[in-house]
Each structure stands twice: as C-alpha cells, then as structure tokens.
Design a protein that fits this description.
Two copies of one chain form a homodimer.
Chain A lengths: L4 E5 L13 H15 L10 E5 H7 L3 E3 L3 H8 E10 L2 E8 L4 E3 L12 E3 L5 H16 L4 E10 L2 E12 L5 E2 L15 E2 L1 H13 L7 E5 L29 H15 L5
Parallel strand pairs in A: 2-8
Antiparallel strand pairs in A: 1-12, 2-12, 3-7, 4-5, 5-6, 8-9, 10-11
C-alpha cells in the first residue's frame, strides 16, 4: 500500500518522570496541550505513538544505584552472547529477559539522576497496551503504540532505535505474496516496520531533547484493531539465530569441545 | 538539536530504469514534476534525498542472468561470514566489496526482469555525490543524498533499509560531549542517522510501489557543506566486529584449530 506522506513530530513539555507517576495520564495531557498549540496535530485515527521506554522505566521505578550496576546486568541476563574488555572494564553483550540482545542487557546510565542506572521496563508490550487503551479512552481514536530503546548492532557503527514493545501495530509487514513491479511475487521480504518506525521517531525525539514521545502520521495501514502479539515477535531466537554467540566465544567453545571430545590419547 | 517536524514523501512517476539511462536527469525531472503538482514540496535547502540503490544498479547495467547468480555472488564476496543450508540451496552471508555484510552479497532478484538478478551499484558513495551535484546544478539548493538497500540483521526478524551510499549527510551523529537532561555528558552515544533516515524513507517508498526516491524534510542539521566520507564509515570492520563469523563457523574453526595445535600424539 502506498503512503502519501509521513509526518513525525515530538510534543514538548513532558516533565521528568518519577516512580509511581501515572504515565498514561501525563501523556494524554501532553497530547491535549500539544493539540491546543498545533490544531493540525490533534490525535487522529491511525496515528502511531512512539515512546522512549526509559520514561516507562522511570514510572515503574526501575532505578538502581550505579554501584549495583553489574549485579543488575547479571539479574537481567538470560544468556551471555559476547564479552569485550576495554579500558574501564568488561562490556557484556547479553540476551536479556525480553529476548533482546543488547550491551549491558539494556541497563542505561544516561538521562537518569546522578548515581543511578535504569533497567528496561518490566513488560514493554504490556505498557504499550496500557497506553493504547488510555488513548482510546481519552480521545476515542484507534492508534498504534511502540515502546523503543536504543541498541547497537553487529557489522555497523552507530546505534539506532528499535521497538521493544508494541500494541496495535503490524510490527512485521509480510510482503510475501505481493508482487514486484514486474509482476513477480516478492518471496523473501518481511519488513520490520516497527523498527523502521522507531528509527524515524528517534530522528525527531533525539537523545538529549527531553521529548520522549513522537507521533507518526501516515502509516494507518499498519495500525490494527487488535493489540496483536507485541514486539516480542521481532526477536529471533534459537536455531534461526546464526549469531547466537560472539565469534571469539564460539571459537573458544569449539576449541574446548574439540579437546574434550578427542582427548590426547585418541 | 531539536527537529520541529519530519516530513517524508516519495514522488510518483519515475519510469523503469534501463542501462545507460541518465538517472540524475530523470530524478531532476521527477522532482520538477512533483513540485508542480505539490508546490509545498519544491526542493529546499537542507532536504535529504533517499534513493533505492536498485535503480542505480539498473542505470549502471549491473544485471546478470539468474543462471549466473551464484557466480555473481562469489565475485561480489570478500569474505564468507556464515552459510546456511535450506530446502532450495545454501544462503551465503558474506562481506561484500563495499564492506557490507549481507545475504547473497546483496545480489537481488526482486524488481528485476524475469531471468535476471541485480548486483549492488559499483560505488554508491560516488553515485550519491553525482546526484547531489546534479541537484545543486539544477535547483541551486544544498541537499544531502543517501543510497539505500534492504538488509537483514542478527537477532531480529524482518529486514530494514540501511544507507550504503551517502553525500552531504552527517551519517553518524556523535553526541559524545553533549549533555543529557540531568546535565551529565552523553558518553556512549553515536547515532547512525543515515540508517535511521533510510528506514524512515522505506516506510514511504515501500518495496512494490515503484517509488524508489523519497524526500525527507526537517533534518537540515544533518546536511553538510562537504560531501563527506560517505556511508563507508558506517561499516564496522576488523577487530571492532565481534560478530565477524557466524557462531557455527567460528565454533568449527576453533575445533579444527584445537586439533591442529594439539595433534593426537601430544
């Protein structure tokens, strides 16, 4: 389906979030205020709301003392994927309890009060569903909601935002069965729409600007009636994951297993 | 820096590109026609043009017979990263001559005439510079240009668009030195702006719609006077790449080397 035009904006004015805040109510207020200043931005059916997950973590009180950072990373870790030593310590790239492979399990020290670090939200998909329901109740419109975080990736420098929570969004757009411009079936293409939307939103929200929410207009074809399976379906797991271990870790394991399997007496 | 609003659109009407076409002239015509129909879209200083690299490949005649596909992949390959057997053959994930790690080296069978496959452009950064110069000559405005392709990534399902060529764009936005909302320095963050823009543009261009060019407005702060180093700087190489080999390949290499280092007689 064709998109005529995509528009992305990030309302200003959300105050610093603290544990116990009613985040959905604050976001509704933010959107009401923004629409008052910009009438053409009044929330409409088919809009997407893209929220930096960090504010959800803050509302949930997912803050720990920076001294407990390494312990917190361990607690969030399901499986270590790779480690790297550097001047100030060891970076652990791990699969966390959300299935996300991230440096330090997604535990983050930026945009948090001095001496603290933030963990990822408990259940970003649930948070997305709650925000979606709150928007429907307040505005009577059907929107999609994404929760985002910033992540590195293999082979490419620089970080991008990805979707770690979703409600009411077709996170994967399966084009298999549609045709290309020569009428041949597109056999291979499943687009990670939610990650592309997260990236587009980051360009507007930024990292330092204090605008954790973006509204994306023009993608109503990806907004669904049902909440759907959430961002969890973006996670590739098990045998499908050809980069389940860092190269150095896999190499070392192979070496070790070879010596174990074939003792020197054989 | 704050972005007030991001807008992305994809002009319709570019005809199918064939070898030898003057692609820059055709794109200039497309933008002139689009601005006639939509006066508010007239190209402006600070706009970004995001072009699917496939049309560059077509203009360059980078087409080979589908029967020669495997051979073409081999020719484009610098290094095999991982392989996977499946029902219809073996998928090779390789580093290609542009430094990109991609399935089948980026050789693609969609949106090409029956019986053919397309290779990536010879030099996407050079193509981006040529388009940028052509736009400056035709419109007298300073724009940024990105060339994109679609790629898979480890750990996440679905494909996204990435930047494989760039001119006049700050492809990596280094925020180290700026401050977060608590006044603490952002020490870790280098954002892959060019990949986020590529992703945003894909949401509008789509895969089947026949609109390979998108205009992105609102990111003038990332448009530079100089052409800059291109998209090549997004490629992470050598020791920095912790996922230089697939896990299975690295494991097998470790096993083999262990037995080589410690022969059974030792």
């Amino acid at each position: 389906m064709s998109v005529d035009e995509l528009r992305v904006w990030a309302p200003e004015g959300l105050r610093e979030i603290t544990p116990g805040d009613d985040l959905v109510a604050l976001l509704v207020d933010l959107l009401v205020d923004d629409a008052r200043a910009h009438p053409d931005r009044a929330l409409a059916d088919g809009d997407l709301l893209v929220l930096t997950s960090k504010v959800v973590s803050k509302a949930e009180g997912r803050v720990v003392a920076a001294d407990d950072r390494e312990q917190a990373i361990t607690a969030e870790t399901v499986r270590v994927v790779a480690t790297r030593e550097h001047a100030t310590g060891v970076t652990r790239i791990v699969e966390n309890r959300l299935g996300l492979v991230m440096a330090a399990a997604g535990v983050d020290a930026s945009n948090t009060p001095e001496g603290t670090v933030l963990l990822l939200p408990l259940d970003p998909d649930a948070s997305a569903r709650a925000l979606r329901a709150g928007i429907a109740a307040a505005f009577g419109v059907r929107v999609g909601v994404l929760m985002t975080d910033t992540a590195g990736r293999p082979w490419r420098d620089g970080v991008t935002d990805i979707a770690i929570g979703a409600a009411g969004v077709r996170v994967l757009d399966d084009l298999r069965g549609e045709s290309d411009s020569f009428g041949r079936p597109l056999t291979m293409t499943v687009t990670a729409v939610a990650d592309e939307v997260a990236a587009a939103a980051e360009l507007v929200k930024g990292k330092a600007a204090g605008r954790p929410l973006a509204v994306v207009r023009g993608l109503a074809q990806h907004v669904t009636d049902e909440d759907g399976p959430g961002a969890r379906v973006l996670v590739r797991v098990g045998e499908q994951d050809m980069f389940r271990q860092g190269s150095a870790e896999a190499y070392a394991q192979g070496w070790k297993d070879a010596l174990g399997e074939r003792p020197s007496s054989s």
